[in-house]
Amino acid sequence: MKKFIVILLIIGLILNIKGTHKKIPDKSIRFRVISNSNIKKDKEDKIKVKKVLKKEMQKDLSKCTTYESTLNVLKNNEEKYNKLVYKELKNDNYKINIGKNFFPAKEYDGQYYKSGKYESLIVTIGKGKGKNFWCALFPPLCFVDEESKKDIEYHSFFKDIIDSIFNS
């Protein structure tokens, strides 16, 4: 009997894992920074740009609750974001684009993002041939506090049941 229950739980666990991908709304807004190349200095530039823009956008978007308000704030602050990137890179070898841009399918932080054209703020540094950073501004997944994630303890419902069966 215990083996039968365990088999059912394992099947349920497998089905549960397959069903955990959540899709964000079709109306999402993304943020992307593409480095010039994959050499160390270019990666450092990408990280500097990402950090300064994320910090500023977090302040700017803190009161945004809709797709439309998020997009309006981005468009209204494009000049400010441009100045911040220029200040970080100390040159104008980059391009900022706020508009619809193609993104391939991607899984990010347990979420499934289908490929397509999305409203986005993209910073392309130099030739844009390096690896990139990206996240979602709306829904606001970019601003999840990484430190708070470290304190989260995960439990598996099915593992807890299996443990209780065999430890009783």
Distinctive features:
168 residues; four-stranded mixed β-sheet; three-stranded mixed β-sheet; 6 helices; globular
Descriptive report:
It contains six helices and seven strands. By secondary structure, it is of the alpha/beta class. Strands 3-6-2-7 form a four-stranded mixed β-sheet. Helix 1 runs antiparallel to helix 6.
Strand order of the largest sheet: 3-6-2-7
Helical run tally:
6
User: Which bin fits the share of residues in helices?
Assistant: 40-55%
Oligomer: single chain
**Are there runs of 5+ residues with pLDDT below 50, and where?**
15-22, 146-155
Q: Which class of secondary structure composition applies to the elements?
A: alpha/beta
Spatial separation of the terminal alpha carbons? 14 Å
Helix-strand topology string: HEEHHHEEEEEHH
**CA-based shape:** globular
Mean pLDDT equals: 81
What is the β-strand count? 7
Strand percentage, roughly? 15-25%
Largest β-sheet summary: 4 strands, mixed
Gyration radius over CA: 21 Å
Summarize the structure.
With 168 residues, the protein is α/β, with parallel strands linked by helices.
Please render the helix and strand layout as text.
Blueprint: H1 2-18, E1 22-23, E2 29-34, H2 40-60, H3 67-76, H4 78-89, E3 94-103, E4 106-108, E5 111-113, E6 116-125, E7 132-138, H5 146-150, H6 157-166
Parallel strand pairs: 1-5, 2-6
Antiparallel strand pairs: 2-7, 3-6, 4-5
